[in-house]
Each structure stands twice: as C-alpha cells, then as structure tokens.
Amino acid sequence: MATSSLPGLQAFVAQIGLEPLQTFAKADTLNNPLDIYHSYLAESLQALVECDPDVIYNSIQLSKTIEDGDLDIVLPKLKLDGIKPKELAFELVKTFPPHPLFAAPFPDSVHIRALFSTKNAPRLLLPYVSDRKATYGKFPALGLQDQPESGSKKVIVEFARPNIARPFTIDHLRSSILGAYVSNIHEAMGYSVVRINYLGDWGKNLGLLGMGWQKYSSEENLNEQTDLFRYIHELYAKMEDEIQPEHEARKKALQDGQDISALETQGLVAKRDATFKQMEDSEPVAMALWEKIRAISIEYYTETFSKLSIKYDEYSGESRVSLDPEAIAHVESILKEKDLWEEKDGAWVIDFDKHGTRLGTAAIRDRHGSTTYLLRDIATVFDRLKTHDFDKMVYVVCEQDVHFRQVFKAVELMGRGDVASKLQHITFNKSNSPVLHPGGVQLLGDILDQCENHMREAMNLDPDEYQIENRDTVAPALGINSLILHQLSLKKGDSNNLDFNLLASPTGEMGSGTNLQLCYAKLCTEIAGVGSYPSAEEIPDLDYSSLSQPPYSDLLRLIARYPVATQSSFEKLDPGIILSYIFRVIDELSECLAIDESEKGEGKGESSSAALKHLARVVLYENVRQVLENGLKLLGVTPISQ
Question: Cα–Cα distance between 28 and 143 in angstroms, integer?
Fold first, then answer.
C-alpha cells in the first residue's frame, strides 16, 4: 500500500505531479482522500490571506451534495476584521492560483465553491482506494485509548435479548440486526468489541416452564422430539394457556378492590412460584433442568444467528447476577448506605423523583423478596465493569427508555457517575404487526426461512428480473440480506411492517435492498469480463479521459466521500447514513452501466480507444465495488457476487 504512510503518500503525490502535501492538525490524509484536497485548497488560500493556517483549514467544509460542488470556503469563518465576506469572495477568485486538483473556483454569496478537476481526480483517487481495499472508510485511531500505547478502547454491545421459551419477535430481530451494525462500526473505528446476547433466562416464566416440563416431559416423550428448542416454546405456550384463567381471576379481583394474597398462594401460580424458588435456592434438580433448557437455547441461537453472520462473544443473562449473591449484595449495600431505597407496600423501591429526575418509582425487590429486572440490570453493569473493564457499553433494545434511564440514574446515584457516562441505550419503536409463524410459535429460524422461501419463489416466478446464477443456492443469502437492509433502512420512529413478498421484489421501497444486491452482482459480472486487470503500478498512469464527464466523474466524486459517510454514521450510530450513501452510489452506477451497455461493440483490440476507455471504467468499477463491499459488510450484509 504505497499511500498508506505519510512518506509513501508524499512520494505518490510527487509522482502524479503535485507539490508536497502540507500538514494541518485536523487533516487525516491517510484515511480520508478529501482531506488531501482540503489541505491543498487550504494551502492555496493561505497564500492569499493573512490568517492562522488552522483557521484557514477549518473555514473549508465539504459541500452537502456533489450537486453543490465539492468543497466550500466559508469566508466568515476566517474572521477577518473590516472585510466584507461577499466582496472578499469576488476578489479572491480573481487571484486564486490554478491548481491541478481543482477547476476554477467561483463565488457564491459568502462562500467560494471549489470543484475537483475531473481530469486529475482519477489519478489521485483510484490508486488511493485501491491501496486500502477493505480498510478504506475505517478510522482505527478513533478507538485508541488517550494514551495510544495502552491499546484500544473496549465497547460492550448488548443486543437481541430474546426470552427463553417465548416467541422471537420482529423487535428482537431488529435489535439483532441493529446491534450487529453497532458492533461492526465500532470495530471499523478501532474499538475492541464484545458482543453480548443477554438472554431472558431468569424469572417466574422459567418457573412456569419448569413446572410444565415436570408435568408433561417424560423421558419417552422427550426422545420423540426432533426439535427440542421448538418443543420448549410449545410447552411454554401450553402452560401459559393453562395459567391464564388464574391471571384473569387475579386481574378481576384487583379491579374489584379485593385482597389477592390468597389467590397467589394456590393453584398454578403458587406451583410456578415454588418451582422458580427452587431455582433461586439452587436446588439441584431444578438447576439441572434450568441448565438443560438454557443449553438447548444457546445451541439453537448460536447456529441460527450464524445465518445472519452474527457471532456473539458471550451468551449472558439475568441469571448471571441472580446466581451470584455478591453481585446483588454489592448493589443493595450501596443503595442502603446512600439511603437510595425505601420500603413501600412490602417491596423495596427507588423513588427517582426524590432524587431530581422524573422517572417515577421502581421496585428493586418485590414484596415476595425476589430480585427485579431493574436490580438485576444494575448489578449487571458492575459485574461487566469488573469482568471487562469497558470504556463504553451500548444497549440496543426496543423501547424500555424509562427502564434504562432508571438503570443509568441509579448507577449515578450510587456514586459512579463515571460509569453512568459510559452507558448508552439505542432504542426504536415496537412493531405493531409482528410476523406470525403458521404454527403459532415464532422462532428466529422461522423468520429467516420465510425470507428464503419468498425470495426463492420470487426468483423462480420471474427469472429475467433476477439474473443470477445458481438461484437456489443464492436465495437464502439474498433473502436474508434484503431483510437486513430493510431493517436498517427504518428510522427510530418508523413502523416495522414487514411484508416478505414486497421484501423479495426488486421494485418498490421495501424491495430496494434486493435491487441493490442485483446491481452489485451485475457490477461484479462487468468486472469479471475484463481480461487482465492492471497492476497497482499501472493504475495511476492509465488514460482516464473517459471518466472526465458525468455520470462517471460524479461516481468518482461519490466514492471519495465514503470515509465521510462511515465517520458520520459512527458518530450518530445511524446505519441509515451508510445505506443512503450506498443507494446514491448505486443510482449513479446504474447510469454508468446503462451507457456502457449502449456502447457495447465499439472497437476491438487492446490498443483501440474503446478498449482503453473500457479498461479505465473497469478500474473505476472495481473501486466502486470495493466501496460497496466495505459499506455492506459494515451493515452486516455479505455481498453476493454471482
């Protein structure tokens, strides 16, 4: 990678006829090619105005879109006394020295707009991207500790959070896909990432499942099961149906103002609670059953999440701190010491309103003495701090905004504001139209199977629309990739209305992910059609005159913006920024490929102008393909090349 070091980059710019690159504090020329342009423009401006070099550099910004230009000099940011920016704009463009990287700048109110020279842009940008390949768009220094010799910062990303024995919802799916992106983008920025799937593996629902297991699961019955994971879910659904009348009776009694204590000490509710109490007391038979159910669940999720290219570093859960008396006792001792909890109706609670936040009152232990969701999550924060010594922890969980604010505030009130500041919750709206498996119990695998089946059916019904070889082999990946892209296209407040037929179609808003993949596959075919690809040494010296006009020049300007898209996406933890960028590249690419199709048959032979034009375009396309691959992988998509 000739341009991957400052000496190498300086040698490269000299090779293509540029003066030595000036250094500016905020320029990251090794990771962002736009900063090379930025630096040369700042140097030219520095020769015209008396101003601090860094102030000059900071007065230049990227245009919002390529239709607005490439770089803008915002003259008021120069803070020149007694000079009117509009008048200065006209004066400066008259004296702006010509530069091989730029067309002539032009004034626009208090701005001076600079456009890249389309003649020389390929000679700079194409070798730059080619040198970096899979690392293009990454900023590894962002994840370093304040003292770089100390290594990378560590981030924990917790996502999915399925509950054992309960259906896997569309919200769990969205959390999984979004969490995978959050993990990937942190890794791209140099962080050490720990991916955690925090299972709902503790609580009275496990007592209900345990009770059902004891009631219905004879050894003979279990031996007949071909899918124990599905059996667990069907058994739990059966037990929920059986206990539902007692829940209804309890609800009615509460509405009528009756004492419900007697109802809680009899029937299935009492048996459920007693079974869970055996687990809490680490009774050997109950714990052996719990461990078996948990192991079956983890085995299933490990295998099924791999279809989404998700691999967790740790399967944790509420049970971890629940089975560790010291973890819970540590939190409760601090809450007591700082007088943060109080007794209310037999339960122990935190009244957050008394501590300056409108978060209401939340129980730490219920009136039966059992730990609550809140207490377990608080204890988990400190357990992970002890185990992983994290610099940041991100929860990707549907809604539950108040709950996580309570967790973070409790940690702060316990005297650990430093830890609370490291915690972040990424949320999204709950789906109002969950996909239901025909059998009633919905598993992650059921959702993925539906994606695959609908995609295969759509491809077989209209093979001309899906011009991909080995359709049966490709259908699973194409369907899952379309699902991922659709989920990541949703805004925080968007309704998650998933329609598998629309998802498999290459037309319409929901099918845009399918169309994107088909375009990528077509691009790969175009590149594969070239005989011999030029070497790294040959790329800077090719004849790129065929790329000097739109849409080819615009496509080149777009791929130069990819590092800006990844950095902005990281800062906001918004995958939509990368996805919108990719769709814009695809739109421009489609125009280029359409022109190529109309020009097919022009000239033959390696020395013909048509052959040289085609070779230059293939080099552009290979760099575009690399950018698309990098972006898709950050989003958790495995690109399909055939």
Answer: 15
